[in-house]
């Protein structure tokens, strides 16, 4: 039946098209905006759209009128039933964002999450970043593995000379101004781009915004939403002298930038001249690029295409945005353009915060969604990973372990502001990993270890926000800029302990690392003592690499006073208040440290590896990584010490070093290990595979580890 | 400029309308569906829609053709740029859902979250529930306080006689069939309703679905998506004999039900007759209501309005849905219509699971969003709450406490399947509260307490899913149906300890409750001993109410063997392995229990209240509630014991009862209390307000508590 209808439909469509052209001429003949529409819309929709979309305003008076004369809301509402046609399925959309520093890097991720949540098209992000943001975001996007998302970085450092001559008092610093030079630095092949501030949140499909390019007239080069405050009217306070603008001016938090037209119109020269001219009488820009954009638009109103207000609902301190959103049926983009950000006072702030919090706490891994029917979406490594996962046998008893080992966790390094330690040849970073239930250890750890730390935290996206709050409200933690926190996002049922250790280890920036665990508090003097020992032992210039052993103790009391010296520690040990770590349950773990010898030792002494030895050690930063196959509980450190021994590290016990384990309720993973024979069987299988790999890599030299394993099994 | 354009636009619109009518006749003159379109669309869109929307099929052959002949996808894609006009802003949309039991109640909440996330209209939910679901959902929606959401319950019990005569083998049981009788039981004033299965997830605004009512012809009464499997073709296996259907038939997971037309057409008689006729040759329905709907449609194809496939993407075991979603630009509703639910095997299952998990873990409180510009949205109590919150002074030092006290937490009672204990006059429920970091206590607690428990868990939505997984994978926990878990959703920075206790207490179903804490393990014999004591002491018939004190001990060792008797306990106490609970830090908390006397006691003995006394007690279920003003750490139990004493409860210590506190790392709230003088000051303020209230309620009798407080302060 259907094929029979088609020629008829085609004929009718042609007729309809002709009729619409006639009607269109009648309707819009003298409206330049509609003449110039160049997009290939669906038959029968152009006219309706032209009736319903906000009228494009071609002079300053009309632009200024949008706010007071005809609240956008009503227009937006009428338009809500009828959207402009979206870009074709699978069309690549381009977005540019300037991002610098630790805090903006966190912000931009929430923005990107909101965009990815609603998007249905492939996206190309053009990120202009400083070194800090690049380091963070490169790692993040590499590990995020979002299909149909391309990332390209541009070095903000190189752009600074282009804009640093403009004095600017805005809190975004130089970086805000960089939006002005995007037409010069983005690839020439790129014709159009959406430019976003890091402090916006999407609540709609970005393709709807992209579709508005189709409404530009020939002359229009930049799409902007009117500024939703009286700032540019210059009446906010006495002697307030803003930059020139058309009426209320425009806000540059969301920009549609028609790049090739900008390049053709000589944009660079245009804005440079304008900025120089204004700076003859004004001392600086107050709102960075936005002041310059507005000055240009004031002079050349024909360049701007006003966008509906819902595409940039501005929650600044003096916002008038209510006029927009109370009327609108649908908000598209929220802009937190107050320095107070989410803490801005506004009677509807709760509403907007909820939209933002949605993405702040959203599990980013859920955005690893393919776009059905679009080709070549997979990010590097994703295909191999998919294949490896597909090869796993769900019925196999250790399936959960295999799956967890293959999981690529999203990693957000240096989640909080961090100052790398100054380069010092004997410096040591404390390396550890934790999850939410150990946060309360951090303050004590900071009191015990005054040196740099690199900590991996295994958290959900929501946990990460709680963690941020925790640090911000702790005077002890917020004072420390030498502690780097790296978030590894939760995924899967087993704790990826060694993957976490490797993340923290890889981010340590000193020549040496102290590989510790979060439940241990080091001796107060340990940081200084370790540096002195490294220097004294000339670790950097010895023929063999060395691992310095820090003897480990434990208290079973959850209230106790920490010993200030080795002498005090020995007293507590003799009194039974302290014990050798896990002396009762797992003596072989630390026996080779030779605690009896340590009591009397005055100098470092060498010890030999033995089965199941798992001391806490100080090693050069380039030490072997932990074996990521060990997930959950058990044997994760043992394997690392074997690796050190196989690579012929000398094990030297330090006579004055110690570290004490505090009690805690058993973790869920340990409870599981204890109660499940299947779990223990899988751990056994992992051990055996580890030894096979060891033999492969170290040959006959690895035989002793296998023998030791077999002996310990026959004992068990 | 705008007004000048209007008359011209109107004239053109009229002309356009005329032209479209001509074209429309030419195009669709002989297509009855287009003749009947009765909605008031925007000018210029009807024709395009008619071109682009799925063709309405008027006979069986054509209905079957939709799937193979013309994949919906291409149609959906073309249509994506052009939606039918949405219902007006603030129009109330109606949704009906049948829901029974604990598991469906969890499911329906995820569905509702997905609907609320995208909705922009007020909603009225009509919930047909059994007693279990009603109990759960009434509490949930009352505490959820979502603006612009009306809930009405209908008793499924009353509907059973209407459909119980139909034999049914589908896993939904009788409840699935209840969709058939909705036209009879929903209010007569209700003309149209969307009917949803509990296992669907929205990924779009439900108003877009509602808008499709506008496409119904005069005769059409039910909108359905074609069934996306070969089930009704009857060739899935040998001797597979499905109910009759048009081609592949239709799926009833998502239904647009035009109620008043159904009533006019005599729906009830129609489906009853049809079902009876088919049951002459078929033994039962396999797919519940869906079989009956299809049988009716087979006979009366003019009644059905086929909906685009994206409105019900079916992930059943034999799904052919790929044909739909690979082509479509935008999926609207996912339907988990396999008994395997999220565990269904499908090469794109990961994609769909991610959509579903989005809402499973979504923080429901973020959906407390008002709809700007719509009147009368606030649920009961919300306005008073808003006012109370608005009156708080953000600068006040205890602002966080005040805010936390006022917070209404969403509460999901009996989150997991639960069998209430049989009524027994001396039965005792253990009442406690916990958060995620104490989950590992649950198994041990179950081993120590064999009676009913009512536990409040303070969790995020995401935690709740982890908790579910934890219970499902624990043989100990999943075997216990007498433990009721009540989720109180996290909101705010302070732990609402007494609100949690009150939730657990309110849900206890036995005449007595043992008010414990999650870190305590009761003596193995305690449950039996308490019941015997209650009986012996004739607690139910004494002139004065009694609180039975269970002496509390603690171990500071996190590995220790639990005493099997009072004698063993006393040995451990003498050996220093056990202590009186908090004997060293807070002796006044338990001193009045008179442990020295207890050692020798053979019979229950009475003790007197003293300042700061906070024993663990067994009391009648109707005991006073905990004072919810105490949030975070400190004094929360002390206030409750004062309340018991003020109400003249006798305090009787049981000679054989005991309970032991296990060590754990300090909670974040305690760390905060210890480190912050501001926190302690606020707690002091709360204490004073509590005493003022006490004086108000108990008059001079409350004087002794105030005196005690002042004395203890002057000592401190």
UniProtKB/TrEMBL annotation, chains A, B:
Its cofactor is Mn(2+). One of its GO terms (molecular function) is metal ion binding. Pathway: Protein modification; protein glycosylation. It comes from the Eukaryota. The keyword DNA repair does not apply. It catalyses: 3-O-{(1->[3)-alpha-D-Xyl-(1->3)-beta-D-GlcA-(1->](n)-4)-beta-D-Xyl-(1->4)-Rib-ol-P-Rib-ol-P-3-beta-D-GalNAc-(1->3)-beta-D-GlcNAc-(1->4)-O-6-P-alpha-D-Man}-L-Thr-[protein] + UDP-alpha-D-glucuronate = 3-O-{beta-D-GlcA-(1->[3)-alpha-D-Xyl-(1->3)-beta-D-GlcA-(1->](n)-4)-beta-D-Xyl-(1->4)-Rib-ol-P-Rib-ol-P-3-beta-D-GalNAc-(1->3)-beta-D-GlcNAc-(1->4)-O-6-P-alpha-D-Man}-L-Thr-[protein] + UDP + H(+); 3-O-{beta-D-GlcA-(1->[3)-alpha-D-Xyl-(1->3)-beta-D-GlcA-(1->](n)-4)-beta-D-Xyl-(1->4)-Rib-ol-P-Rib-ol-P-3-beta-D-GalNAc-(1->3)-beta-D-GlcNAc-(1->4)-O-6-P-alpha-D-Man}-L-Thr-[protein] + UDP-alpha-D-xylose = 3-O-{(1->[3)-alpha-D-Xyl-(1->3)-beta-D-GlcA-(1->](n+1)-4)-beta-D-Xyl-(1->4)-Rib-ol-P-Rib-ol-P-3-beta-D-GalNAc-(1->3)-beta-D-GlcNAc-(1->4)-O-6-P-alpha-D-Man}-L-Thr-[protein] + UDP + H(+); 3-O-[beta-D-GlcA-(1->3)-beta-D-Xyl-(1->4)-Rib-ol-P-Rib-ol-P-3-beta-D-GalNAc-(1->3)-beta-D-GlcNAc-(1->4)-(O-6-P-alpha-D-Man)]-Thr-[protein] + UDP-alpha-D-xylose = 3-O-[alpha-D-Xyl-(1->3)-beta-D-GlcA-(1->4)-beta-D-Xyl-(1->4)-Rib-ol-P-Rib-ol-P-3-beta-D-GalNAc-(1->3)-beta-D-GlcNAc-(1->4)-(O-6-P-alpha-D-Man)]-Thr-[protein] + UDP + H(+). Keywords: Glycoprotein, Glycosyltransferase, Golgi apparatus, Manganese, Membrane, Metal-binding, Multifunctional enzyme, Signal, Signal-anchor, Transferase, Transmembrane, Transmembrane helix. This is LARGE xylosyl- and glucuronyltransferase 2.
């Amino acid at each position: 039946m259907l094929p029979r209808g088609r020629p008829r439909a085609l004929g009718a469509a042609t007729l309809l098209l002709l009729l619409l052209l006639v009607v269109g001429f009648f309707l819009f003949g003298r409206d330049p905006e509609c003449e110039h529409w160049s997009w290939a819309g669906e038959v029968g929709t152009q006219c309706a759209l032209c009736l319903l979309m906000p009228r494009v305003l071609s002079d300053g008076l009309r632009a200024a009128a949008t706010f007071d004369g005809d609240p956008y809301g009503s227009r937006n509402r009428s338009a809500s039933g009828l959207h402009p046609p979206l870009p074709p399925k699978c069309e690549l959309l381009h977005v540019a964002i300037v991002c610098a520093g630790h805090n903006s890097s966190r912000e931009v991720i929430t923005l990107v999450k909101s965009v990815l949540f609603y998007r249905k098209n492939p996206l190309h992000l053009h990120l202009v970043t400083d070194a800090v943001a690049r380091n963070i975001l490169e790692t993040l996007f590499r590990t995020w593995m979002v299909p149909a998302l391309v990332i390209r970085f541009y070095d903000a450092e190189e752009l600074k000379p282009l804009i640093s001559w403009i004095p600017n008092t805005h809190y975004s610093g130089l970086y805000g101004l960089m939006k002005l030079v995007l037409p010069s630095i983005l690839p020439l092949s790129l014709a159009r781009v959406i430019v976003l501030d890091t402090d916006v949140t999407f609540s709609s499909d970005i393709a709807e915004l992209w579709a508005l390019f189709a409404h530009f007239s020939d002359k229009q080069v930049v799409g902007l939403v009117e500024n939703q405050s009286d700032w540019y009217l210059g009446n906010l306070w006495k002697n307030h002298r803003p930059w020139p603008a058309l009426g209320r001016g425009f806000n540059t938090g969301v920009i549609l930038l028609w790049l090739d037209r900008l390049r053709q119109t000589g944009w660079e020269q245009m804005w440079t001249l304008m900025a120089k001219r204004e700076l003859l009488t004004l001392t600086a820009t107050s709102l960075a690029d936005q002041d310059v954009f507005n000055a240009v638009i004031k002079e050349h109103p024909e360049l701007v295409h006003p966008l509906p207000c819902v595409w940039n609902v501005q929650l600044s301190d003096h916002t008038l945005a209510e006029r927009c959103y109370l009327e609108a049926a649908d908000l598209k983009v929220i802009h937190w353009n107050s320095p107070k950000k989410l803490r801005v006072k506004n009677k509807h702030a709760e509403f907007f915060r909820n939209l933002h919090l949605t993405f702040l706490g959203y599990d980013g891994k859920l955005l690893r969604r393919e776009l059905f029917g679009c080709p070549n979406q997979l990010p590097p490594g994703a295909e191999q990973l998919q294949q490896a996962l597909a090869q796993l046998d769900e019925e196999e008893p250790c399936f959960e372990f295999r799956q967890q080992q293959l999981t690529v966790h999203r990693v957000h390094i240096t989640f909080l502001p961090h100052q790398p330690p100054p380069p010092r040849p004997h410096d040591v970073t404390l390396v550890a990993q934790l999850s939410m239930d150990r946060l309360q250890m951090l303050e004590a750890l900071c009191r015990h270890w005054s040196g740099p730390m690199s900590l991996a935290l295994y958290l959900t996206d929501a946990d990460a926000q709680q963690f941020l709050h925790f640090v911000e409200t702790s005077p002890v933690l917020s004072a420390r800029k030498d502690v780097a926190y790296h978030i590894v996002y939760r995924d899967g049922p087993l704790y990826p302990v060694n993957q976490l250790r490797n993340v923290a280890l890889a981010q340590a920036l000193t020549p040496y690392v102290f590989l510790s665990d979060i439940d241990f508090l080091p001796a107060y003097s340990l940081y200084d003592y370790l540096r002195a020992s490294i220097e004294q032992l000339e670790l950097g210039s010895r023929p063999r690499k060395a691992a310095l052993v820090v003897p480990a103790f434990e208290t079973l009391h959850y209230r106790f006073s920490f010993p200030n010296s080795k002498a005090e520690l020995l007293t507590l040990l003799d009194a039974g208040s302290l014990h050798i770590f896990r002396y009762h349950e797992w003596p072989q773990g630390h026996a080779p440290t030779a605690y009896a010898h340590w009591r009397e030792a005055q100098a470092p002494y060498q010890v030999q590896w033995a089965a199941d030895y798992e001391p806490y050690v100080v090693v050069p930063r380039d030490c072997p990584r932990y074996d990521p196959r060990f997930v959950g509980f058990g044997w994760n450190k043992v394997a690392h010490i074997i690796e050190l021994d196989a690579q012929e590290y000398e094990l030297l016990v330090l006579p004055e070093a110690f570290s004490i384990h505090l009690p805690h309720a058993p973790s869920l993973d340990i409870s599981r290990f204890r109660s499940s024979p299947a779990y223990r069987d899988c751990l056994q299988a992992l051990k055996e595979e580890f030894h096979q790999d060891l033999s492969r890599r170290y040959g006959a030299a690895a035989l002793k580890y296998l023998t030791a394993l077999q002996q310990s099994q026959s004992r068990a």
